[in-house]
Amino acid sequence: MYGGVKAAGRSARTRLRDRLAASDPGLLRLTAGLRTVGAIALALAVLAVFGADVPHLVAGAMTAMVATFAIRENESRAQAVTVALGLPVALASVSVSALLASRVVIGDAFFVVLIFCAVFVRRFGDRGTALGLIGFQVYFVSLFVDAKASALPGLWGAIAVAFACSAVVRFAVVPATSAGILQRLRQAFRARLAQLIATQTELLDAGPDGIEKTLEHLRDGTARLHETALMIQSRLEEGTPDASTARLVQRRIADAEIAAERLGLLLLTARSAERADTLTLHLPGAPAPAVGRSPAPGEATETLRRDLGALRTLVLRPPAEARGTALSHLRNRLLGYRDEENLPEATPAVQDVFRGLGETARAVMGLRIALDGPQDESDDTPATTRSREELDAEDAAIDAGEEGSPKEEPTGLRRPTTRAAVQVSVGSSLAILGGEFLSAERWYWAVLACWIVFLNTASTGEILVKGYRRVLGTMLGVVAGIVLAGLVGDHTWVAFGLVLLLIFAMFYTAPLSYTLMSFFVTAMLGLLYTLLHTYSLSVLLLRVEETALGAACGIAAAALVLPIRTDRRTNELLGTVLERLTDVTEGAVDQLSGGAAADLLDTARELDQALGDLRAATQPLTHPITPLRARRNTAQYVVALLETCAYHARSLAATAELLPTHPSIAADPRLRGAVRRTVRNIEAIAAHVADEDAGTEVETGPSIASLLEPDAAGVPRYGRITGRVLRHLERLDEAVVGLARPLGVPVRTPAQ
């Protein structure tokens, strides 16, 4: 009985851990919030012991926050160096601010120069970005607490304590190594993979009324799994002991992601009257296909539901609980479907789902071996043994690969950091002038708003959307600040406790919603004004006015000074995506046709990264507030088509990488001819995007799927794996032709 209770408790903890891992991959948001709150709390405690007054407590708390969130490097040693360099930068910044407090013109001029330098040094990577951010934010803190030259010794002490406390919390209380973060990201990948399989199970029973909702969950689950895979990719170099291990994890993550997405498509096809369109999984709001009452009659449906549950168990079961005949039985049964063992009596589409289950089980087994080490082999069936041998052969073929050649960086005003430094300096100058007309004491809020709308933005449209979100969050935060300030009254430590809570919420929600983050910031500032005895309704309303002014100045500077129009940026990124798509497709088909081996998974991830950049850049076009509805729909459609293309390209790359070791995959030179038209069409679209007067055309022709038809004697022309490659090429070709219409590229059909 006790053992059962203990097991149930462990199971509940495991489920909670998996949910948390899935909602916050790598626990990055939780770590950021805990670190920041811990650093502030420790700084407040130390300063209180030394008898610091409220202004010094506020300065210490805000500096501890800055010293914690500004440093984003992955390696602990690099973080320590940046912390050490950040302290003198902060001391110099607060000193200059205090000394120039009585010299308004010189102080404002220096602030603009500081802003320029803080953005300009981003070209030096994470460390330059962190030091620039520390310099700017500490200057702002000194303005916020109205620092004078006479108060400098106390402020130096508060800032030193803040940096020391930030370092203690970062390296001792809430440490986060690259290996540890990668381990948690792996756990998040498993949790999200299990959630996706659970959603796929729901697809079995979804009726006509519920299919739209289930399909939306399927899209979200697929996108979340892909997001986690990209996060793992960005951490592999620092989080693994060597390049071979990194490549092994990369391959297994890619295999599992592709297999899971393919399984979803096969299930959707089994529920549909015809083969499901891949675009259905990538286009928000795409109409769901007509579905029948059940994917297969009677026993086959129950078997499918049972096996999806077994697959989810294989994904989630911890290594310590993975031994024993029960789990081996599940694994062996699923892997047997790869060798056509025990396929139920059902339609061909449903039998394809069972084969997809087998392929996904193989990918999950490879993932477990890569992440958890060797597995129990005592109960292997011949089918499982063959899968292990394939995985071992693939592992042996992995090498470190070659380093890519360095990319040519733009110079002068073409460099993004230089352009942004000029823009934000002009915008801040306007914000200073306008802000001082609104308030000679609180003008710096306009500068802060202008500064923030330029962070992590690269086009006028992105700055416009960020400015709108900033103002909206600030307005809502003012209401919350009024309520909280009235409730807190003169209770200093209650106010500080609420400040800590709001700061945690700010950092935990920042990656999810910029509006929410701005809301929590403004509510927190209302409490800080209460602590400084400068709170009033007029002060909080002034903050809204200053924020709106600063956002407007930032938008004006972005639109008028060295502007990067959203159309221009999206076209540049679209060209990059098409170039990467060509590289992956040509490389994969060349290898499948018998050409030399290439580093296809890295190339596929470069495609994913380029597509992620494009997706972020199109947010101003797809934002709900955009008045151009037709343009919004076009942008969503183009991105969804490109995601479909990327899925098929990833699948081709993964299949090509199996070629040297997989006994059922053989090179077929005929594939080169099947892809030529598709590659020409991608290049034609890329040329049109670069120059609308290029005069290029997209060409249609016979369907690639026609190559799959049997010959006159009824004998298939291709094997099952080559047939799968041709189906991917067919879908890729259809998606590429589909891109022509929304992008305005003429389509030509050759005369018969």
TrEMBL record:
<feature type="compositionally biased region" description="Acidic residues">
    <location>
        <begin position="391"/>
        <end position="402"/>
    </location>
</feature>
<comment type="similarity">
    <text>Belongs to the YccS/YhfK family.</text>
</comment>
<feature type="domain" description="Integral membrane bound transporter">
    <location>
        <begin position="431"/>
        <end position="556"/>
    </location>
</feature>
<feature type="transmembrane region" description="Helical">
    <location>
        <begin position="128"/>
        <end position="145"/>
    </location>
</feature>
<keyword id="KW-1003">Cell membrane</keyword>
<feature type="transmembrane region" description="Helical">
    <location>
        <begin position="444"/>
        <end position="464"/>
    </location>
</feature>
<keyword id="KW-0812">Transmembrane</keyword>
<keyword id="KW-0472">Membrane</keyword>
<feature type="transmembrane region" description="Helical">
    <location>
        <begin position="519"/>
        <end position="541"/>
    </location>
</feature>
<dbReference type="Pfam" id="PF13515">
    <property type="entry name" value="FUSC_2"/>
</dbReference>
<feature type="transmembrane region" description="Helical">
    <location>
        <begin position="471"/>
        <end position="488"/>
    </location>
</feature>
<feature type="transmembrane region" description="Helical">
    <location>
        <begin position="547"/>
        <end position="564"/>
    </location>
</feature>
<feature type="transmembrane region" description="Helical">
    <location>
        <begin position="27"/>
        <end position="48"/>
    </location>
</feature>
<feature type="transmembrane region" description="Helical">
    <location>
        <begin position="157"/>
        <end position="182"/>
    </location>
</feature>
<feature type="transmembrane region" description="Helical">
    <location>
        <begin position="494"/>
        <end position="512"/>
    </location>
</feature>
<dbReference type="InterPro" id="IPR049453">
    <property type="entry name" value="Memb_transporter_dom"/>
</dbReference>
<feature type="region of interest" description="Disordered">
    <location>
        <begin position="371"/>
        <end position="418"/>
    </location>
</feature>
<feature type="transmembrane region" description="Helical">
    <location>
        <begin position="104"/>
        <end position="121"/>
    </location>
</feature>
<keyword id="KW-1133">Transmembrane helix</keyword>
<protein>
    <submittedName>
        <fullName>FUSC family protein</fullName>
    </submittedName>
</protein>
